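Issue 218. Parser rejects a valid record. Input:
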Amino acid sequence: MRKKDPIILEQILKYINKYYQSNRSAPTISDVAEGVNVSRSTAHRYLQELGNRGVLTYKRGIIRAPESAKLRTEYVSVPLVGSIRCGSPEEEDEYVEEYISLPVSLFGKGDFYILRAKGDSMIDAGIDEGDLVIIERNCPVSPGDIIVALDPDNQNTLKRFVGYSEEKEGYILSFENKNCYPGETICLNTLETQGIARHVIKSLGKSRMSVQNE
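Output the parser choked on:
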């Protein structure tokens, strides 16, 4: 099943809220399709998704007005903090470029920040250069997680955490690009993490974005 574009989901939510506030009734599926500039079939799929998430009530092509009036529109403000390399660890200046509002109904609540990915070592994990990676701070790390790791020299990198190696006496981070970095890993004597990658916001063109969940 294809993942739904969170930008379209958010646009539909905002449109329904605005429509209900103006008309005191819920829009039709045709209204939604026209209002967010998508096809009726696309509007139907996205309304079903919102219904499945419990954000609104959508049955038999009808958006229930009483539920539409109670749509959850809570947002969390998340800082976009510079860039991070997905190649070899490289020190990056951390500064807040801007704050981005993420709908809680789609991303959940957490201590998040956003990094812009650089490099090509994580492309097999679906992370390309220029993607925005949503990182959750202050959470336990498990093998298999994609993490922001900090070494003793305060260099950071985004890699897959493999676990602790008795043989190498260190914590292993792996590259996710079999063509360019087959089998390449990083071994750290100590593991300091700055969070776990939870979502990836990808550019699909100049005007559309999509999200992948980690």
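Fixed in the parser; the record now loads. The longest helix spans residues 6-23.
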